[in-house]
Automatic annotation (TrEMBL):
<dbReference type="Pfam" id="PF09346">
    <property type="entry name" value="SMI1_KNR4"/>
</dbReference>
<dbReference type="InterPro" id="IPR037883">
    <property type="entry name" value="Knr4/Smi1-like_sf"/>
</dbReference>
<protein>
    <recommendedName>
        <fullName>Knr4/Smi1-like domain-containing protein</fullName>
    </recommendedName>
</protein>
<feature type="domain" description="Knr4/Smi1-like">
    <location>
        <begin position="3"/>
        <end position="119"/>
    </location>
</feature>
<dbReference type="InterPro" id="IPR018958">
    <property type="entry name" value="Knr4/Smi1-like_dom"/>
</dbReference>
């Protein structure tokens, strides 16, 4: 993880590092059924469809930056439409931002990474 932080020029939030350690051990998370649960619950959250694989996180971000995503953030996951879930590069805070690829807009979900994961767990009733 430290080499990826160096390459991106970012410091991953502790909560994200803890989750990434789980992914390194057990494999990447792909969540296509989360969209159904979000729609059924009436939640306004975007669906977190897939986490970036640890080995590809630098190339993944380079792709989004070349497509117009501000280089002040880095992405760690996407929704089903290809929008990027992000953290700010200059911060160790784990506030989650979403980069909308269609409208070229960056907005805050006003949730930390742990809060976002907990919201999803409540939606799927885990």
């Amino acid at each position: 993880m430290n080499s990826f932080e160096s390459e991106l020029g970012a410091k991953f939030p502790k909560s994200y590092k803890n989750y990434k350690n789980y992914i390194i051990k057990f494999g990447a998370t792909h969540n296509p059924s989360l969209l159904d649960s979000i729609v059924e619950s009436g939640s306004e959250l975007p669906d977190l469809n897939e986490f970036a694989q640890v080995a590809n996180v630098v190339k993944f971000n380079e792709m989004y930056w070349s497509g117009g995503m501000p280089n002040t953030v880095y992405t760690f996951a996407t929704d089903c439409l290809g929008n990027a879930f992000c953290f700010e590069i200059s911060s160790e805070l784990d506030e989650v931002l979403v980069y909308d690829t269609e409208f070229d807009e960056l907005t805050s979900l006003e949730l930390t990474f742990d809060e976002l994961i907990n919201e999803y767990l409540q939606i799927v009733d885990v």
